[in-house]
# Entry
Amino acid sequence: MIRKMTKPIRRTYRQVSSKRRVLPNFIIIGAQKCGSTSLYNYIIQHPGIVRSHVQEIHYFDNGLTRDVDAYAKGERWYRSNFPLASEMAGGKQTFECSPLYIYHPLVPKRIANLLPQIKLVALLRNPVERAISHYFHEQRKGRETLPVMDAFLAEPDRLAVLEESSDYKSKAFLNHSYLRRGRYAEQLQRYLEYFERKQILVINSELLFDEPSEALRRVFEFVDLDSSFEVPNLKPSNVGKNRTKVAPEIYQYLDDYFKPYNTALFDLIGQEFPW
# Structure
């Protein structure tokens, strides 16, 4: 019957019933263009999962809409995006996946205040490939007009305004942060100020792309779901179509840029990825 309601009525019903709804057992915190949509679509096939109302709730990062502050809506609104407690029999779990969470500097403390025992999954891609994928994503959306190398070189000036204003809904922060988003150690360090290391699972996207079953086994084991379950549909999601060949010198520039940040990441998490 609920599915027959109009969207506004369903939204009102979810908020009215929010006290009877659960909070997530775990959160995929990002990163953007690292395969998080594919990971979400794989996980929701597990019989132990009851999916959230939407994949990307964007509560802790204030939301993506310029004039709407999702975080200001409060816990009641956040709960309205999750299943009723009555749906969670048999140890079922629910989660959300908002890939901006890892990058947004205010998010770790906010999550910790509401969900101090939450488990967090960070999906990290080779930052060189992530930056290039991000660039073509923004170009495809009509939000980037500069050539690829010019866009990378323009980033410090674009983000300089952000440093002064802390405008986390600006185009610079959301759309033009090609290099900054790949500095993963800085972002994870903010989480480690509020969460124990054992609460955070870090997986490299290359494992998800090449061996999705193994990546999922690790995720399921980490969040205490049956790790022997084999996801039937492992088709990747949200794959860009407009990518063109990138010159070798751009790859070299990015390799050089990210080398010290990758080293810092590997030292922080105690493991290395093939980047």
In short: The longest strand covers residues 119-124. DSSP finds eleven helices and four strands in the chain.
